[in-house]
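pasting for the record
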Amino acid sequence: MQNQRLVLSQRLLETTQLSISQVAEQVGFGSDSVFRKHFKSTFYVTPTQWRTSFKQ
């Protein structure tokens, strides 16, 4: 379940302008700090770094 949330968060970071806190809330994490921790431990980059890599 957590992996599904993280994959959804990747898509939201790539395709929306939602803040990191809003993305965390949309995918069901209780706080953005918990979201950031799980995102980085899974993908080895922060949510902000992930988003930056998709900006053109």
